[in-house]
Amino acid sequence: xxxxxxxxxxxxxxxxxxxxxxxxxxxxxxxxxxxxxxxxxxxxxxxxxxxxxxxxxxxxxxxxxxxxxxxxxxxxxxxxxxxxxxxxxxxxxxxxxxxxxxxxxxxxxxxxxxxxxxxxxxxxxxxxxxxxxxxxxxxxxxxxxxxxxxxxxxxxxxxxxxxxxxxxxxxxxxxxxxxxxxxxxxxxxxxxxxxxxxxxxxxxxxxxxxxxxxxxxxxxxxxxxxxxxxxxxxxxxxxxxxxxxxxxxxxxxxxxxxxxxxxxxxxxxxxxxxxxxxxxxxxxxxxxxxxxxxxxxxxxxxxxxxxxxxxxxxxxxxxxxxxxxxxxxxxxxxxxxxxxxxxxxxxxxxxxxxxxxxxxxxxxxxxx
Length: 368
What we know:
The protein is α+β, with helices and mostly antiparallel strands and 368 residues long. The chain has helices at 40-69, 82-97, 152-155, 200-223, 269-272, 313-318, and strands spanning 2-13, 73-79, 103-106, 116-121, 131-138, 169-176, 179-187, 233-238, 244-251, 255-262, 292-295, 301-304, 307-311, 325-326, 362-367.
């Protein structure tokens, strides 16, 4: 019996306008900076028009990327609320590509912008086995003090009573054709600005380490510490961290060089320590594991995997020959692909936007 599982950071699936850019240029869209906007009312009208026009193209591409996943169960990150999720599922996934998701689960989490993790599921797998949701549990309320995770590094920006997850860890208990499977859907703390001599990744690393420890604690509390290896579970989502990357050197005129390297430390080491879970993406070639192109100009460009489907040892062993797929047709043209990886983009894809997302969906077919 097989199940098609996918994860995708759809990026800002919003149901509301953000007018804060009128007073804060850091939040103002770059196209509006080209114009002399004289009043807040005029700014709001322009921002509404810009957002609506931009969003339709973007969501068409997001829907095409999700359709290419062809997943029975889809784990999403950055959904505004259930109303936005339902509108997108019906208006784009169902009406546009003819294949929607009847079961939807979203619990409001901790993100200051209101973006949440969610799970969309079909009623049956592609081979006709029922997909039953037995329980959905949020862990958004957990604090550092609850799990005794507070330390000196966290104390620089947090307090013991602060919540661990910057969004949530959504625990979803399923029965697939009568067989159990548990999903843990997460979206870890993003890499913020540089602080106190540390780059954005290093400055926010303690927060992601705490989140990873909390996820592992939740799973070990559920199944028993030292007794998780034979359980059927997966951790899905945007981890906002990586254990390896591919540095991009060169330029368009002279060509590019792609140089892989491993990171000395990562929050994800918490997951791979003692084989707690396995990253099946390592079954792909080293230059072909990336799900995001990062660029801060020609001096800082790399490809890396931020989006994961971690498999428990039992699930990984049962699917030893299964290789994840990465859907990259929604990437903007500015993304630099290694040789041999170029894909045909979706219609109307732009240099930087429109795009399906900066993130590539990841999908894998699993034997359950």
